[in-house]
Amino acid sequence: MSHPAEKRTPLYDEHLRLGGRIIPFGGWLMPVQYSSIREEHEAVRNRVGVFDISHMGELVVSGPGAREWLNTMLTNNLERLEVGVGQYTFLLNDKAGVIDDLIVYRIEEEKFFLVVNAARIEEDFAWLSSHQPGSASPATALRIEDQSDSYGGLAIQGPKVGELFAALFGAEKEMPARNRIGSFEFEGTAILVARTGYTGEDGIEIFFPSSAATKIWKEVLQKGESLGIRPCGLGARDTLRLEMCYPLNGSDLSPGHNPIEAGLGFFVDLRKPNFIGREQLLREKEQGPSRRLVAFKMKGKAPPPRPHYRIFRDGVAVGELTSGTLSPSLNEGIGMAYLPSPPPKPGEEIEIEIRGQKFPAVIEKKPLYKKRP
After folding, report:
1. Last residue of a domain, one of 220, 255, 288
2. pLDDT exceeds 70 at position 2
């Protein structure tokens, strides 16, 4: 029985039809897997896979001064964004803790398309709205709109994405360059196509009217059949992103952690004169963070590590896992955790407590998975 508070994407019936195993995630009912996590994971690493991302949120900020104002709300620098380009960035609270990590695309001169995490849609919208500058005239006011219910979305990921793009949109059409977004038409439906992803493979994320979701999903699977496409669930999404050490909001990122601790200072522009959380991050940068998000691999034969398992260093409990899984590509247990500074360096050993027993693990450089040339 599903909980009434849990929402369904426009593709919910399609997931059931394809035998997807449904679980609650971030207030939504989503497929965790269809065949097996390993099969879906390998499809993305070697061929192509498709994920339903219709649960993710779409916020649109537009109007005079949209760029200047949004630049005070986000950590990365919107001054660098030309029209048609996107960047990864953070929305921080007053203490520089992560409310959300998101991608912002500049789709017009003064119009920005924010793709936010499913569990954070309402919170992000409320936070942005509470900081919205006033205007004497509604006609010239800056607008923040939550358009999440209007959009469906798919992430199509894997080395064969270019062939699938050509099959869907026509061989004469060019796929957007990395981190760029463009408007395309598919059987009369306007689609936004962005060259981004969360798997470490080449890929696109496409956004379209939610009413067209089923038609587009079926077409993607049909056109991708000869390429070995697989529908993929949250399980493969988690193993793929963790091999790349991409953080998961709510696990590796939270209001109690900041981007510097998470090793994501690259997406924070401290040269910007003013954004929420800047002063705290400046101090953190100068003094050095008190903890760091590190990655590790299990050694020898050990059960897979899972979130919240305790970590020991020299016999002392020093933290707990934020993420952990069995990596299909490496065939080893992998994970991430915040450890006190100075954290152990790559090559140093720690221990993970699994069901009352301690197993050795070794700190590794990020990412854990490196694509063979």
Report:
1. 288
2. no
